[in-house]
Design brief:
The structure is a single chain. This protein has helices at about 25-35, 50-55, 70-80, 100-110, 145-155, 175-185, 215-230, 250-255, 295-305, 325-335, 365-370, 395-400, and strands spanning about 5, 15-20, 40, 60-65, 85-90, 115, 125-130, 135-140, 165-170, 190-195, 195-200, 210, 235-240, 260-265, 270-275, 280-285, 305-310, 335-340, 345-350, 355-360, 380, 405. By secondary structure, the chain is of the alpha/beta class. The strands form six sheets. A four-stranded mixed sheet has the order 20-21-1-22. A four-stranded mixed sheet has the order 2-13-15-14, with helices on one face. A four-stranded mixed sheet has the order 4-5-7-6, with helices on one face. It is globular and about 60 Å long. The relative contact order is 0.15. Bound molecules: shikimate-3-phosphate and phosphoenolpyruvate. Phosphoenolpyruvate binds near residues 68, 69, 70, 71 and 292. Monomer. It holds the Pfam family EPSP_synthase. It catalyses: 3-phosphoshikimate + phosphoenolpyruvate = 5-O-(1-carboxyvinyl)-3-phosphoshikimate + phosphate.
């Protein structure tokens, strides 16, 4: 599906949007609910990724296909490997078979798990035969993806002796690990994170508990970008959000101050307001803690004619696509002076934006969503626009609500 986006009749936004639950929190709680049936969940993400996770958890034998969902792939690998009596082949989309999983498989094997590679060493699909795991100590590299660590932690309390992880190297995407531990704590599952060591203690059952998922901050980023690119005085109210979020992407409220966007927390809502023109002509930010908002921020800077130097982007090459290359190609088409390395992205300030450019999305929901707010500056086309359903199925409806022409 190709969508033509046109500039709003007025660049002044005044809208209210309700976003569903964080896909990261949802996929963690869905797994915990499978381990502890008296856990319930509210405001679950309506994303494809949460749906494949929920479906996958119900299967005990045969093929489990998680499509493009990285968290489902990693979390379910550890789940099936530690569930005695289950035997599955865990697979996904073509891209998923190119996203590395060797670090997690090695860690699980060293704990006694039985996992074999169906095709290529180090990559899905995986054949997993669930085993009772009694070993409890493992060390693993922490600089490639935090999802391997969260996968082990989420299943740790169901193991006879719990788990002690020693993290080797510079730990990446740390807020996602802390989110995992915070959710365990909400279920009174004891855990500690000191230096490079994380311990999770065994727990047979938990008290009945309803975990309410905060709405998705990565999805909120597209509204931050829209407000930054819209007229002064524009406002969007988003729900349901809180100031003390478990999601690292809530750093958006800090970052977007540089673009003249103010964030006010009001009960369970967040009010975004464009209160001034950008204060800087170049944004410098390390995104190692919030990799999923890199595309949004790069496009906002370009749309405002600002430069940027974004670092900490080493995980972007193994996500839904190589996001650094994809940004380089698509922003160049729009007229940006951009350069990338394998962990940084630089854009030079420029005011010209090429009109009616067709943006390729590379099976990556965030490529489609990050470029959409540019419609506040110019008309553009988004190719394969249906990719947004991976995390945000209502995205195009919500873009229409804030005034963008979408046909
Ligand atoms: O644990 C999670 O829910 C996630 C962790 C991050 O991955 P990495 O740790 O691979 O950077 C992030 O990019 C992804 O969208 C969701
Ligand atoms: C990287 C992402 O997801 P995952 O790794 O779970 O596929 C994302 O949603 O931006």
């Amino acid at each position: 599906m190709k969508l033509h986006l046109s500039q709003p009749v007025s660049n002044h936004i005044n809208s209210t949007i309700r976003i569903t639950g964080s896909k990261s929190e949802s996929n963690r709680i869905l797994l915990l609910k499978a381990l502890y049936p008296n856990v319930s969940i509210e405001n679950t993400s309506n994303s494809d990724d949460a749906q494949v996770m929920e479906k996958g958890l119900k299967i005990s034998n045969g093929v489990v296909d998680i499509h493009h969902a990285g968290t489902a792939m990693r979390f379910l690998t550890a789940y099936f490997a530690t569930q005695e009596g289950k035997e599955v082949v865990l697979t996904g989309s073509q891209r998923m078979t190119e996203r590395p999983i060797g670090v997690l498989v090695e860690a699980l094997r060293s704990l006694g798990a039985e996992i074999t590679y169906v095709n290529n060493e180090g990559f899905p699909p995986l054949k997993i035969t669930g085993k009772k795991i009694t070993q409890s100590k493992v060390s693993l590299p922490a600089d490639i993806s935090s999802q391997y660590i969260s996968a082990l932690l989420l299943n740790a309390s169901s193991l006879e002796n719990g788990l002690e992880l020693e993290l080797v190297g510079k730990i990446t995407s740390v807020p996602y690990i802390k989110m995992t531990l915070a959710l365990l704590s909400q279920l009174q599952i004891e855990n500690t994170f000191e230096g490079n060591t994380i311990k999770v203690y065994p727990k047979k059952d938990v008290k009945a508990n309803t975990l309410v998922v905060e709405s998705d901050w990565s999805s909120a980023s597209y509204f931050y970008s829209s407000i930054a690119l819209a007229d002064l005085g524009s406002q969007i109210i988003l729900s349901s959000y809180k100031e003390n979020s478990l999601q690292g992407d809530s750093v958006l409220s800090e970052i977007y101050k540089s673009f003249g966007v103010e964030t006010i927390f009001n009960e369970n809502k967040v009010v975004l307001k464009k209160i001034s023109t950008p204060k800087l002509n170049k944004l410098v930010w390390d995104l190692a803690n919030a990799p999923d908002i890199a595309q949004t921020i790069a496009v906002t800077c370009f749309g405002l004619g600002m430069g940027c130097y974004l670092t900490g982007l080493h995980t972007l090459k193994i996500k839904e696509t190589d996001r650094l290359e994809a940004l380089n190609t698509e922003l160049t088409k729009l007229g940006a002076a951009i350069s990338v390395t394998d962990k940084t992205l630089t854009i030079a300030p420029t005011m010209a934006i090429n009109k009616d450019i067709a943006i390729d999305t590379y099976n990556d929901h965030r490529m489609a969503m990050a470029f959409a707010p540019l419609a506040f500056k110019t008309s553009l086309i988004i190719n394969d626009a249906e990719v947004v359903s991976k995390s945000y199925p209502d995205f195009w409806t919500d873009m229409k609500t804030i005034g963008i022409g979408v046909v």
